[in-house]
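Whiteboard transcription, Tuesday session. T.W. wrote the structure tokens on the left side:
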């Protein structure tokens, strides 16, 4: 857009304030402001620091001041700004003060125009009661809130009337909201708001670098009553900011380096980078890793007087709000040299100037990599500098691919939950508080949203009937109706207790409970996160407090275990915290492995020549490129050319002291592998009559059977296909801890069980026991909306059954080959990571390194003793 376009749409005093404050408009501002002024729905996608928030607000502020000039500005709410974080809301309010005061001052002093004050207020759960009363009497022109608070004010009888005047809605960090049930909830809230508003509400979405933008635009705009998508103009400025992303290896040799050498290498790299920059933001992938890194950095940097002890801070969701705010403020004031975070600083909270972002290990998706690195060089024309330190060879390959994809703008696709019925139930209860509804009219409103646009009327009606209390079995479990429903009139409305139930129990973010762990029934030994407990199966071995235990059973929120001294852990304790590699990114990793294999073949396994090409193509240093080439060449030599990739699944049968391990080298990401592994495990268990243990990673999954039974792997492969995988997966999750936990969360969201009622609060343990009793009663009823939603959430959101179907279809169509090798007592190099997965607990890191080295030595000897393999590889430890 030319400057003249902005001169045409903005009032002269608004334009002058902007030029005086910032000089020139950024690309997203030039393109978005005229569209917003024309009344278009707009999605703005650009990196942090490109001015998209001001792009959304400036045209609206200009329009409000135009109303003031014309003496038409009323004490009404014109603008609703919704963000996922309360901290963002505080930032926005602070950042609005400058334009609101500055424009008014220039209008008065230079143009002789006296403008009224435009008021902006925050309404969240933190807002004191007296401020809420003031807002009700004299509403702000701009209301800043969260999805949860919007849900409450939409049903508040008096405040609800104040929302009729809404003209604009701004959704910040829409990419973050859309991919969760908070987004499903917000989409219905927006349609209910539209139903209330006196005019068509203009929608503006602000997003980081995501894909596909068309899907997020559909989410933002929804559909009209005619079933056609509302028009949404997309301002795509995702790649207007320069990025400098590099991948680093901490040691020359990632196999023979000891744990101590690896750790020293990582922290000396961090120290070198921190000391060469003014302020560094370090991202880890788990909260526990954040604490470990801060502890170690204080030892490495502060004890050597390189950085002050108070110059290093931690920021993650488990810390108190006061501590997080203190870290944010100190970072903004330039008082911190280093802040270590997990995911809590990914979103656009104003944290001042950062000149380096450092990632420890893979961020697991291209969009997350760009989001994190985008926190550096906050201003538009500054380079966002990011460095990724890798921790092992799989991590090196993955990070190299993600960095390359980021440079090539290959962004993984955002997934939006499809028609979650528990969120629908919550909104039907809320709608009953607004008025009496005909079911068809309520259905029409909900179907205008993107997540529910394909919702069947029968499913909608089943939720209404469930809430209206048509299930005798549920009444027997003390689950009573939340609304009244008249089937003859086909209408529903509120009951006397409906408002109290909704106000005390609404929200979509699940409660996280702690699991108390008891040894031999009585002795309390510690706590586990609920997310970790839900992935365990009886017989799994895990670490707690430096000791190993075998999981026996879970009753409510009490876990019972036996000692497993000397046994290898099967699940690392941080597994539930780990981010999964996205399906799109996993396919790119597979494609890269295939490319390296082809390079090795092209150069006759000359590692120097292959390494040079890899270094040039992927912008890697010599050590990193050689490590990649060596890793792939060793797998090639060991398997006589079988290298798992995007076009090849390698199934390896490996025997060890645990039994027979069937390892599927499947480069499809953890969610797809989780779905595939459970389907295959269920089929194998049915065939063998034996319990099958499952281990899952982003690059593989492993099925373990006790002993060394004969398994017809070819038949096993054929027993799971694109048509039956969803059915097998659904059968496999019944009776699992995950089913019990997710059912409780869905039951809470749909008000089947109530956390708060008539002044008393149910403990998490009692909620879990209640949910378990109800689930036992409903288990055979797959059409119950809460059971149905539990299954949908597990197989589509926690796992990825659609990606699993796509993989199986490609196998059936011959696009992906399957190769089977073994049995063998020596695992291939690619298998080492999944075999050692239980050793990734920090207390056993040295054991894990020793295990990996011993596995590697087995491979080395195996290859050296095999003439054909030896010919394929100039095997070297250097």
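and on the right, the sequence the group agreed on:
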């Amino acid at each position: 857009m030319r400057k003249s376009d902005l001169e045409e749409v903005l009032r002269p005093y608004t334009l002058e304030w902007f030029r005086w404050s910032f000089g020139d408009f950024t690309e997203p501002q030039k393109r978005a402001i005229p569209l917003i002024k024309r009344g278009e729905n707009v999605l703005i996608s650009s990196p942090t620091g490109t001015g998209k928030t001001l792009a959304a607000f400036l045209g609206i502020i200009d329009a409000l001041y135009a109303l003031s000039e014309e003496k038409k500005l009323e004490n009404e709410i014109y603008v609703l700004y919704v963000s996922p974080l309360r901290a963002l809301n505080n930032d926005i309010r602070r950042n609005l003060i400058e334009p609101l005061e500055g424009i008014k001052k220039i209008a008065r002093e230079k143009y002789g125009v006296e403008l009224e004050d435009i008021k902006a207020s925050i309404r969240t759960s933190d807002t004191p009661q007296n401020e809420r009363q003031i807002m009700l009497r004299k509403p702000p022109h701009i209301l800043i809130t969260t999805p949860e608070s919007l849900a409450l004010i939409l049903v508040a009888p008096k405040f609800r009337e104040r929302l009729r005047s809404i003209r604009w809605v701004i959704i910040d960090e829409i990419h973050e909201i859309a991919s969760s049930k908070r987004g499903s909830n917000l989409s219905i809230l927006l349609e209910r708001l539209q139903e209330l508003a006196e005019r068509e509400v203009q929608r503006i979405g602000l997003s980081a670098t995501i894909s596909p933008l068309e899907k997020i635009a559909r989410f933002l705009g929804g559909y009209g009553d005619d079933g056609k998508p509302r028009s949404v103009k997309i301002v795509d400025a995702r790649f207007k900011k320069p990025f400098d992303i590099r991948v680093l290896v901490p040691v020359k040799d990632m196999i023979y380096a000891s744990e101590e050498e690896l750790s020293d290498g990582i922290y000396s790299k961090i120290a070198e980078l921190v000391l060469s920059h003014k302020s560094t933001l370090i991202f880890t992938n788990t909260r526990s890793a954040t604490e470990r890194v801060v502890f170690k950095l204080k030892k490495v940097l502060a004890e050597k007087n390189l950085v002050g002890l108070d110059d290093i801070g931690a920021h993650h969701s488990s810390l108190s709000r006061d501590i997080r705010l203190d870290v944010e403020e100190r970072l903004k004031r330039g008082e911190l040299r280093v802040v270590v975070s997990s995911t809590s600083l990914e979103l656009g909270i104003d944290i001042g100037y950062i000149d380096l972002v450092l990632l420890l290990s893979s961020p697991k998706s291209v969009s997350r990599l760009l989001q994190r690195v985008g926190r550096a060089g906050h201003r538009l024309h500054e380079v966002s500098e990011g460095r990724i330190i890798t921790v092992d060879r799989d991590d090196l390959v993955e990070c190299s691919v993600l960095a390359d994809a980021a440079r090539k703008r290959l962004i993984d696709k955002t997934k939006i939950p499809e028609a979650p019925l528990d969120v629908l139930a919550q909104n039907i209860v809320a709608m009953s508080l607004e008025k009496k509804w005909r079911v068809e009219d309520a259905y029409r409103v909900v179907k205008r949203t993107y997540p529910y646009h394909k919702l069947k009327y029968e499913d909608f009606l089943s939720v209404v009937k469930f809430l209206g209390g048509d299930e005798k079995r549920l009444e027997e479990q003390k689950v009573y109706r939340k609304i009244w429903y008249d089937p003859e009139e086909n209408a529903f409305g509120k009951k006397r207790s409906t408002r109290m139930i909704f106000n005390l129990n609404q929200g979509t973010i699940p409660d996280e409970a702690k699991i108390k762990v008891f040894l031999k029934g009585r002795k309390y030994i510690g706590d586990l996160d609920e997310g970790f407990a839900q992935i365990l199966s009886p017989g799994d071995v895990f670490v707690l407090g430096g000791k190993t235990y075998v999981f026996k059973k879970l009753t409510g929120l009490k876990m019972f275990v036996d000692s497993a001294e000397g046994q290898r852990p099967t699940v690392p304790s941080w597994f539930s915290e780990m981010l999964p590699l996205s399906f799109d990114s996993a396919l790119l990793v597979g494609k890269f492995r295939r490319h390296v294999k082809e390079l090795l073949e092209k150069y006759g396994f000359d590692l120097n020549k292959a390494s040079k090409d890899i270094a040039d193509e992927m912008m890697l240093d010599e050590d990193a490129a050689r490590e990649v080439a060596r890793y792939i060449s060793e797998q090639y030599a060991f398997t006589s050319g079988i290298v798992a990739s995007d076009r090849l699944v390698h199934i390896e049968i490996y025997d060890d002291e645990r039994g027979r391990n069937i390892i599927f080298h499947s480069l499809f990401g953890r969610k797809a592998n989780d779905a595939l592994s459970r389907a295959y495990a269920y089929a194998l268990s049915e065939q063998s009559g034996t319990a099958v243990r499952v281990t899952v990673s982003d690059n593989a999954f492993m099925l373990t059977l006790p002993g060394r039974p004969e398994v017809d792997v070819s038949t096993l492969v054929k027993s799971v296909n694109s048509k039956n995988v969803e059915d097998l997966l659904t059968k496999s999750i019944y009776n699992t801890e995950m089913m019990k936990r997710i059912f409780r969360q869905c039951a809470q969201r749909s008000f089947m069980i109530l956390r708060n009622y008539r002044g008393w609060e149910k403990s998490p343990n009692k909620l879990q026991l209640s949910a378990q009793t109800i689930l036992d009663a409903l288990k055979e009823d797959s059409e119950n909306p809460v059971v149905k939603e539990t299954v949908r959430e597990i197989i589509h959101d926690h796992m990825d059954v659609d990606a699993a179907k796509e993989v199986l279809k490609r196998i059936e169509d011959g696009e992906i080959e399957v190769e089977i090798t073994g049995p063998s007592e020596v695992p291939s190099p690619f298998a080492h990571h999944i075999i050692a997965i239980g050793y990734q607990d920090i207390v056993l890191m040295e054991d894990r390194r020793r295990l990996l080295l011993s596995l590697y030595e087995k491979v080395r000897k195996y290859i050296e003793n095999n003439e054909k393999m030896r010919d394929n590889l100039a095997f070297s430890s250097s």
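Someone added at the bottom: Residues 705 and 778 are 32 Å apart (CA to CA).
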